[in-house]
Design brief:
By secondary structure, the chain is mainly α. The chain has one domain (about 1-30, about 65-260): Ferritin (Up-down Bundle). The chain contains 11 helices and no strands. It has helices spanning about 1-5, 10-25, 70-95, 100-130, 140-150, 155-165, 165-180, 185-215, 220-230, 240-245, 250-260. Helix 5 (about 140-150) packs antiparallel against helix 6 and helix 7 packs antiparallel against helix 8.
């Protein structure tokens, strides 16, 4: 069912499908069972997505100043695109990886439903600005890393939720400050919801990364460094939201490294 939702091309229908599935799971619907050993074939051509927005390299996405109506809409569209892909990556984790504890699938279905909520909040606010999802170009960095790590569960947990998604913990307060100055208090409220719940999503990534390392006899710090060398995720840059990262399970050691700006050594918590 997570795969079926992942294949849906209409963003709103996808979001509702994921929220409905989570509601049934959370209510312990007796007709819904998690088969942790089920191996589900990848149908290809994932994720389901609409024809728009056009996807371009990150460097070609226009600058988004929130101090004009068009710029603010473009900025919120970029965040909506991130949340659209975030619900896809959560659904992908549920269907793709078998043989894990039941708690893993419950965790990631909750993430999928919350990301769907974030998308719907942003899409609704975009409508009040006279725009819809698809109106602006977007880049595909989050899904690209999701796809690159499709055959490596440890890498997926290391490099998607606790690396790429964790960047949102740092960026969101800065974006909120600009939106507040631009007078868009509704957008600030929506980002409050997103930031609070994204801390939990990153914490889930941290938990399952450490669990996977322990299961496979890997040392989390050194293995994270190796994964970064292998997959080359975007480099994290300051300023960092120390408190949010601590709440999400990052260590003081990693925060000290991030703040040092070391160009070569990449630690993990």
């Amino acid at each position: 069912m997570a795969l079926e939702a992942l294949c849906v091309t209409d963003p709103v229908r996808k979001a509702y499908a994921l929220q409905s599935l989570w509601a049934r799971l959370e209510a312990r619907d007796p007709g819904l069972r998690i088969d942790t050993e089920a191996v589900i074939a990848d149908p290809g051509d994932l994720p389901g997505r609409p024809e728009r927005p056009p996807l371009v390299p990150a460097v070609e996405v226009p600058q988004r100043s929130p101090f004009t109506p068009q710029g603010r809409a473009a900025l919120l569209h970029a965040i909506a695109h991130i949340e659209f892909n975030a619900q896809n990556l959560a659904a992908d984790a549920v269907f793709r990886f078998s043989g894990l504890p039941e708690a893993f699938y419950i965790d990631w279905m909750r993430v999928a439903a919350e990301e769907a909520k974030h998308y719907l909040l942003l899409a609704g606010h975009l409508a009040t600005l006279g725009h819809a999802y698809g109106d602006f170009p977007a880049h595909d960095g989050l899904w690209t890393m999701t796809w690159k790590t499709r055959e490596d569960f440890v890498a997926r947990m290391a490099l998607v939720p606790r690396t790429l998604e964790a960047r949102g913990l740092d960026a969101t307060p800065l974006i909120q400050a600009k939106l507040r100055r631009a007078g868009d208090l509704r957008a600030v409220e929506i980002l409050d919801v997103i930031l609070r719940e994204e801390i939990g999503h990153v914490a889930i990534g941290n938990h399952w990364y450490r669990w996977a390392c322990e299961r496979e006899g890997l040392e989390p710090v050194s293995h994270y460094r190796e994964l970064v060398r292998q997959y080359v995720p975007p480099r994290l840059r300051p300023p960092f939201n120390r408190q949010a990262r601590l709440d999400a399970g990052f260590s003081e050691t990693e925060l000290a490294w991030l703040e040092s700006g070391s160009p070569t050594d990449v630690p993990a918590p």
